[in-house]
Amino acid sequence: METPILLAALSPDEAGSHLAELGALLHACVHDGASLGFILPHAPAEAEAFWSGKVLPAVRAGTRTLLVARAGGQIAGTVQLDCDMPFNQPHRAEVRKLLVHPRYRRQGMGRALMVELEQRARASRRRLLTLDTRTGDHAEPLYAALGYRRAGVIPEFCLDVAGQRLDSTTIMYKLL
Fold it and tell me: What's the start-to-end Cα distance of the chain, in Å?
């Protein structure tokens, strides 16, 4: 039986008080092989520092929305809507770091987070969303099913999580 999913945007104070839980989510996803900008070994403190140093300042500045999905009372998924765009791109936002804990995958959590993100983008007058994902990753078909189109592939974009090979990234977009 699937666990009910509760979605919410975290305020800066809420985000700050959940850094350890957010860090644990990121840590679990990296250790499961997700391409999120980290290389193994990946310590829990490094994951928590990402949230406190990279995400929380943008949430505080009001340029990023941090959405979380809770299941069983715990943060089991998250995605970010980054609206910090150049002056000539006020109509655009970026999707950042869709994470779903490995225990909760294939239950609709990623889709629910993306649908909520798109609603919030529309409410913020954003009509173009962009993202990148590891080429061939299990997230790519999810994005395509949600109407994101492939803009192109950049070969040898980043190291894999083990630091042993270079992976390509697929750039995708959706007009809302």
Answer: 33
Query: For 97, phi and psi rounded to 5 degrees?
Result: 50, 65
- Alpha carbons 43 and 39: distance in angstroms, whole number: 10
2 pLDDT band (50/70/90 cuts)? low
Please tell me what DSSP assigns to residue 147: T
Q: Phi-psi bin for 152: left (phi > 0), alpha (psi -120 to 50), beta?
A: left
Q: Are 109 and 77 in contact (CB under 8 A)?
A: yes
Q: Does pTM surpass 0.90?
A: yes
Neighbours of 146 (CB within 10 A): 16
Give CA–CA dist 53/133, Å, rounded.
22
DSSP β-bridge partners for residue 172: 131, 150
CA 142, CA 73: separation in Å to the nearest integer? 25
